[in-house]
Amino acid sequence: MNLQNFEQLEKSVHSLIDKYRELRFRYYQLQQENNELKEKAKLVEKHNGELNLQEIEKLRAENSALKAERSELKERLKKLIAELEEIDIT
C-alpha cells in the first residue's frame, strides 16, 4: 500500500467515524425524547385523574415517529459499522 492510498483510506475512515458519531448522538437524542414522551404521558394521565385521549394519541404519534426514526438510524449505524469492518488496511 502506498502513501497516497493510505492517506485516502485514512480520510475515509475518519469520515465514517464522524458519521458514526453523528448517528450515534442522534440515536441517543431520540431515546431521550422517547423517554420524555413516556413521562409526559404518565403525567397527563396522573394529573388529569382521567385519560386525556387526545393528548395521549398525540404523544403516541410523536413516540411512533421517534421510534421509526430511531430504527432508521440504528440500521444506518449497522451499515456504517459494516463498512468500517470491511475496510482493509493491509
From TrEMBL:
GO molecular function terms attached to this record: nucleotide binding
Coiled coil: 20-90
One BP term from GO: FtsZ-dependent cytokinesis
InterPro entries the UniProt entry points to: Cell_div_ZapB, tRNA-bd_arm
Keywords, sorted A to Z: Coiled coil
Taxonomic superkingdom: Bacteria
One GO CC annotation: cytoplasm
Record-given protein name: Cell division protein ZapB
Species, as recorded: Caldithrix abyssi DSM 13497
